[in-house]
Every structure is written in C-alpha cells, then in structure tokens.
Design brief:
TIM Barrel, nine-stranded mixed sheet, 11 helices, 44% helix, 9 strands, alpha/beta
C-alpha cells in the first residue's frame, strides 16, 4: 500500500480543552510528538487570543522548540490562521512549513465559525495564499462541512469537486483536507466524496480530517482509506473536535488506532517507540 501521510493535531486537541494548559507542558508534549516521527504536526494557530485563548502562546512554543534544536526533525510544522493578519504572523516564522486555512462549503457554518460569509472567506483566503507564495509556505485548506451539513445548505460531491478545482486553479492550493466538522458524515458520504475528488485532482494531496464518536471511528477511517485517501489527521486519545457538534463523544480520530491500523498495513510506522510511549503518557496527564 502507498505510504500514509499522518498528521498529529495537538492544536485541535488543546484549543478547546476546558482546563488551561501551560506553555511548558505544551513544549514538553511537542518534544515527544516531534520525536515520534509524524509527517506533519499541527502545532498551533495565529488567531485572536480572545477567540482561542489556549493558542495565545503559539509563537512562544515555536520559538522554544527551534531554540532547542527540534526544527531538525523531518516533521512538517503546520499552523492555522483565519485571516491575513494571522497569515502574516505565521509567515514570519521560518520554522513554519504549512499554513492552514478553514474554508467551509456551508455558508451557515462559515458565518458561525468565523463571523464572515463565504465571499469574505474567499477574500481572506486569497490574501493568505498570496502570503504563502511570497514566504515559501505551503497552503493547506480545510474544507469544513466537507461531507455535507446539518443546516440544509447545498452540498453534493460535485460541489466539493468544483470548490477544490477553484482552490487549485485560482490559488495554487497544494493540500486540501476534507473535514467532517461536527461528526455527522456517514461512511457512505465519506467514500463518495473521496471517490469523486481524488481522480479529479490526482496531483493534489487530499486528506481526511474526520471527527467521530468511539463507535464509528473504524467505519469512517475505513471508508476514507478504501476510497483512496492516504493523508489522515488524528489526535492522541481522540481529543478535540468541534464544539458545534454538541456531543461530548465526538472528537478527532484517535491516533493510536490509526497507528495500529496503518502499521498493520505496512503503510506507516513510529520512528521512536520510547517517544511514542512518552507522548501517550503526557497526553493521559494533560487530557484527564
């Protein structure tokens, strides 16, 4: 099987955690995660600290890890932004490889999530894409509500393909990650989306950022895998997800399950078993 690109998302796990996590604890956690050998680490965000207070120290965390020599690891460093101001901050860091931007296929969700409609979101994304080009960063677009939405807004796999083509042709987007934002996507919808999009854009990295309850993790991950997806986001212990899901059981795909599944297929392996054990131990302390 083609090798999996595995993305670990401590940012997604930490940002909504109800208890503040100290900067020193984040740095210790990220040290272990960088030693594990994940292909990409979603490390933080440059957004308003009023909106996401847990990410207010992203710059401090990045600087500390660079000073400690962790930039030498092969893992790509990704941060999330929501507008040009955040993109400028992110682009100023040489250590940042990828800048992620959330763009919904749902007008309703885009307004609820960012306070702006889709037209304004596209304007912000264009500015972000320009900053990525100027600074040599790779643009990663997360298509939230990528498998449908509960609001009655238009959706079909053909719409997803249309938006994806626009992202590539107008903005030069290199990575598109389909997001099951509130955890309502069925395995059938996930499979249909990837079967439509992957052949349409064979030269673009298409990923899965899935949210699930413990009862449908395997079904959702399997649906994406069998439809040809080879880039997956996860978070240790399945922590994180979208608060709009309004379901405490819905979180990120547990990285432990992904590592076991992809390891059995010979498609991904941990580089440092001690670091992997340490990362899981730290996560158990932080998210308890």
């Amino acid at each position: 099987m083609q090798r999996i690109h595995l993305v670990e998302c401590p940012r997604d796990a930490i940002q909504g955690w109800p208890t503040p996590i100290d900067t020193v604890d984040k740095i210790a956690y990220y040290r272990a995660l960088l030693d594990v050998g994940f292909d990409t680490l979603d490390m933080g965000s440059f957004v308003s600290p009023r909106a996401v207070p847990q990410m207010a120290d992203t710059a401090e965390v990045l600087e500390a890890l660079v000073d400690e020599g962790f930039r030498s690891r092969p893992t790509r460093w990704l941060v999330i932004v929501a507008n040009a101001r955040g993109a400028r901050e992110a682009a100023a860091f040489d250590c940042v490889d990828d800048i992620g931007f959330p763009l919904s296929l749902s007008e309703t969700f885009q307004r609820r999530n960012t306070g702006a409609g889709l037209e304004e979101a596209w304007d912000r994304l264009r500015e972000t894409a320009e900053l990525c080009r100027a600074s040599g960063k790779r643009l990663v677009v997360y298509t939230s509500m990528g498998f449908g939405n509960p609001y009655g807004d238009p959706y079909a796999p053909t719409l997803l393909v249309e938006v994806a083509h626009r992202l590539v042709e107008e903005l030069g987007t290199q990575v598109i990650s389909l997001s099951d934002t509130v955890g309502t996507a069925t395995p059938e919808a996930i499979g249909d989306a990837f079967r439509a999009l992957l052949p349409a854009l064979p030269d673009v990295a298409i990923g899965a950022h899935l949210h699930a309850s413990p009862f449908d993790v395997v079904e959702k991950a399997t649906a994406a895998l069998e439809a040809g997806c080879r880039r997956f986001d996860g978070a240790i212990r399945g922590v994180g997800g979208c608060p709009m899901a309004k379901d405490e059981l819905v979180g990120n795909l547990p990285t432990e399950q992904l590592v076991d599944r992809f390891g059995a297929l010979g498609a991904w392996s941990v580089k440092d078993d001690r670091a992997w054990a340490q990362a899981q131990s730290i996560a158990a302390e932080l998210f308890s």
